[in-house]
Amino acid sequence: MNFNVLSTRYKSERNVMYAKSGAVATSNPQAAQAGLDILRKGGNAVDAAVATAAALAVTEPTSNGIGGDAYSLVWIESEKKLYGLNSSGFAPELMTKKAYKGLKKMPRHGFGAVTVPGIPAAWAELNRKFGKLSLYECLKPAIDYAREGYIVYPNVAKLWEESFEDYSNDLKELEKLPKDRVKKDVEAELVDKELLKEWFDTFTIDGKVPQAGDIFKCEEQAKTLEEIANTGAESFYRGRIAKLIDEHSRKFDGMIRKSDLEKYHPQWVEPISTNYKGYDICEIPPNGHGITVLIALNILKELELDEEKETVDNIHKMIECMKLAFADSKKYVTDPKKMTVSVDAMLNQEYAKKRSELIGEKAVFPEVGEPFCGGTVYMCTADKDGNMVSHIQSNYMNFGSGVVIPGTGIALHNRGNNFSLDENHDNIVEPFKKPYHTIIPGFIKQNDEAVGAFGVMGAFMQPQGQFQVVTNLIDFAMNPQEALDAPRWQWIDGMKIEVEDDMKAGIAEGLKEKGHDVKVISDKINMGRGQIILKNEKGGYICGTEKRCDGHVAVY
């Protein structure tokens, strides 16, 4: 039969999923099944989260991998406590502004975009602190997928093709340059041809991109995962794998060294929150930009919404709230040790009220305030004892920097691209500093009880997706699946916004009349991909998954 697996001529509908004893919701069915298998073996929600996360690093390499960063929010029911884990990495010691002389912005590709990865440390630390099973047991499904092969799902294949074209374009541009400029033409964001070659050798099949339905294997990745499992990730930071990263970096004049990896440890942090209409919306504190969601909700609390969700006024107000929130977070959020404005000041309700007064009938260009008054994967899990995990991990842009460490299957992320080269910016690049970070897990509580885990991946769409999901659940009484399925908008920059083409008729035109520069889009893959698991008042859980990807909820 001849058909297009990405074609959807007829809109399908999905009901919420119920789970009696446990659930795993994520963007890849194979990864969700890995987490469910761990729950059935007697593992808890944290074990399932680690297993799912590792499986995602294998089965969805277009969004995350062993060489990326991670954050987690962990609810422990017996303690009635929410824990936060920041496993994002810092800039290597050699990553100074001087190293980027002549550049206007940080590079996307090559070692110049690579900060210390945090994902392996996150898996090991989560397992150490809360796991019931061994790290090897949790990583075994991912090891098996890498060794025996996994099915490439449609949206993964689509993003794989995008990365192939991106790196191929780099190679074409390299061919045009004089040989003496090829290695360090950082202004053009180009990298050595030999450096990119390792990506093509590792992540293509005979030089071709895997297609939807193909089986992909990576024995090198399987061996790396086994080494991480057997050493509690020590090999990655202080052993053989760290040495391999150091050697490859030195070979191509990169900045990361084994000494940087040796200094790295994930951090347990106190989650931040705001109360939105009776619910505590919780996020990881900066350097992540989850605070953007909370700022936007604080501003929205000062405004009145129509009862019906899809009205021009509602969407206009929400977009303006998000623009103002982003204006502040993009200016002030960085490594918390380097922030010039406190989290408390940014979340001060009086400040939010003043910001809300800037919102009128017409769209405005977002201006930074002065609050001194006061491609990622997402997954969530839950177990029979009421424990829940909201976890997110990322390469940042698809496969990341394009740097693959030979013999390991490790693609290094490009999170360093988020640093600024502006000396007057809080987020300026400097050694051992963590950059502004886009990945944000979310969690909802009420009266010190867990309501549920939620999140929406997608770089700068993440806080916008979370903001829309929270208001869908709380303001417009949507069930978890509806809250994810509802048409989305995304603020891009200045007055530019995108809205999905299934938005109610007349919305786009109405927003244009209010001064927004509106683009209606049909390709929804960059509009965020979310998951929700909420506690069911009758017992068990009620779940929703994303229609914009290969979303799946595995339950038992």
Write the layout of secondary structure elements.
Elements: E1 17-19, E2 23-26, H1 29-40, H2 45-59, E3 69-76, E4 81-87, H3 119-130, H4 135-148, E5 150-151, H5 154-176, H6 193-203, E6 215-216, H7 219-231, H8 234-238, H9 240-251, H10 258-262, E7 267-269, E8 272-276, E9 279-283, H11 291-300, H12 312-332, H13 343-346, H14 349-356, E10 377-382, E11 388-394, E12 404-405, E13 410-411, E14 442-446, E15 449-457, H15 462-474, H16 480-485, E16 489-493, E17 496-500, H17 507-513, E18 517-521, E19 529-535, E20 541-545, E21 552-555
Parallel strand pairs: 17-18
Antiparallel strand pairs: 1-20, 2-10, 2-21, 3-4, 3-11, 4-7, 5-6, 8-9, 9-14, 10-11, 12-13, 14-15, 15-19, 16-17, 19-20
Specify Rg, calculated over alpha carbons: 22 Å
Total discrete domains: 1
Tally the helices: what do you get? 17
User: Which bin fits the share of residues in helices?
Assistant: 25-40%
Which stretches are low in confidence, meaning pLDDT under 50 for 5 or more residues running? Answer: 182-188
Distance N terminus to C terminus?
Answer: 34 Å
Class of secondary structure makeup? alpha+beta
Q: What is the overall silhouette?
A: globular
Strand order of the largest sheet: 1-20-19-15-14-9-8
Largest β sheet strand count, sense and barrel closure: 7 strands, antiparallel
Strand content: 15-25%
* Overall pLDDT level: 93
Total beta-strand segments: 21
Would you write up a description of this structure?
With 556 residues, the chain is an alpha+beta fold. Strands 1-20-19-15-14-9-8 form a 7-stranded antiparallel sheet. The longest helix has 23 residues. It is globular.
